[in-house]
Amino acid sequence: MLRGLSTLVAAICVLPMAAVAISALTGGTETVRHLMDTVLLGYAGTTVALVVLVSLGTLMIGVGAAWLVSMTRFPGVRMLEIALVLPLAFPAYVLAYAYTFVLDHPGIVQTTLRGLTGWGPRDYWFPEVRSLGGAALMLILVLYPYVYLLSRAAFKQQSGTTFLAARALGSSPWVAFFRVSLPLARPAIAGGVLLAVMETIADFGTVAYFGVPTFATGIYTAWFSMFDRAAAAQLALCLLSFALLLAILERVQRGQAKYHDPSRRSDPMPPIALKGWRGGLAAFACGVPVLFGAVLPIVVLVWMGVGSEQNLLSPRYLGFIRNSLTLAGVAALVTVCAAISIGFYHRLRPTGLSRSATYAARLGYAVPGGVIAVGLMVPFAAFDNALDGWMRSTFDISTGLLITGSIWLLVAAYMVRFLAAALGAYEGGQAMVHANMDAASRSLGQTPFGTLRRVHLPILAPSLLTALLIVFVDVMKELPATLIMRPFNYDTLAVQAYRLASDERLDGAAVPSLVIVAMGVLPVILICRQVGRRR
């Protein structure tokens, strides 16, 4: 049973990518030829430029902040060490709504500037927030915590012996950092940057609202504006190929990056005390990302929401909240159960089949939500249409859209997208369960399922709770797959926020955005507590 369940989950994870490839290669090319002549090169260039900007931004902020809080001591370091994780609770499109409200032409900043100077609209230049640079900045502010968390863990695990040896040989702290500490942490840093890049190419809400043409917006346009599923599949295949290429390159370089400390000592590096203006500068550098990534957006969203006349207790909003909680709760349970089945089967039977299932389950993190949506909609829509045609011709009964029109296909898309996160949390906790416990349980007459229920699950309860919360919040924030696959008249908070923002009703979009952020605070607090325990 466990083998069959793991195989089924792995097959569902592979299905979207296989369906996208088949649909793209067998579909017509008229729309794609038109796109190639008009906007396809623009999609590719903008996507690459966005990836480069976000990679550089998250790298500098994440690594710099991780080094300062790990290896130095300055005023406020303990508070900032935790606060630097807070922007992870925000979807990038929520920040886009908040900063557009403040920085756009009718916003408070430019209005105040014109009031103080008496300038007209054409008398001054102001950076355009709705631009490629603005989208990159929003993504950097919410994605740098990926790099920060992994880099900080890598710096904490390093022995101080090599760093002190470099200092004894005459290197300055900065030279020792660049020549010793940074290369040792490179695999972890690369992993964090890759996560940020994957989220960047999967983002739809921010780039769509700012009018930045990327492959993610192109897929949505081909699906809903041109009504060409083959073109959407072909664009999705381009984006999927790019994502998988990045994942393969990162895995190759990580496999080649191996470091060994020949000494038996693993003394932690003594922190460097920063006093005076140096300490103030370090506190300022670490405080700026928190200010612009969490504190200021919350203030702006509350300010916007107070005068929006949006009633969270109205039946309409209660329906949005109920739909969001239902989808997120069901998807979190299904995803964690799938992670348990695959993880436990691989522990129980470490064969080629179980390893392949585990690898297939991890592919979802490299596949954008829009690609998964197209990959699931195409085959199941064909199945629904074929079944409906057969039932009509045979029994004169219309079955309609049995699968495509239900929330279960959307839940499957969420599972494929976020199974890697749940599996990572499960395997991290499973490492705490020694193999001797399994042997002792089996010797006492327990079946594999009895061992899982009586031994593993009680020990893994904290890890499983973390996995549930992570998937729950990720589903609450997810936008492209929800927009494409949601059943008719089944809107969520993310869809409502996107719809209001698309209509330029930013004050109204603030209310569902605040609810989404509030839902994201809990797992971030858990991460912060974990960070605090490891100090």
Structure commentary:
The protein is mostly helical and 535 residues long. The protein has a domain at 1-38 and 307-502: Orthogonal Bundle (MetI-like fold). Helix content is 77%, strand content 1%. The chain has 24 helices and 2 strands. Strands 1-2 form a two-stranded parallel sheet. Helix 7 (132-157) packs antiparallel against helix 10 (186-202), helix 10 runs antiparallel to helix 13 (229-256) and helix 14 packs antiparallel against helix 24 (506-533). The radius of gyration is 25 Å and the shape is globular.
Tell me how many strands there are.
Answer: 2
- Percent helix range: over 70%
CATH superfamily of the domain at 1-38 and 307-502, called what?
MetI-like
- Report mean pLDDT, rounded to a whole number: 82
The level-1 CATH class of the domain at 1-38 and 307-502 = Mainly Alpha
Task: Using the 3D structure, state the CATH architecture of the domain at 1-38 and 307-502.
Answer: Orthogonal Bundle
Q: Alpha-carbon distance between the termini?
A: 43 Å
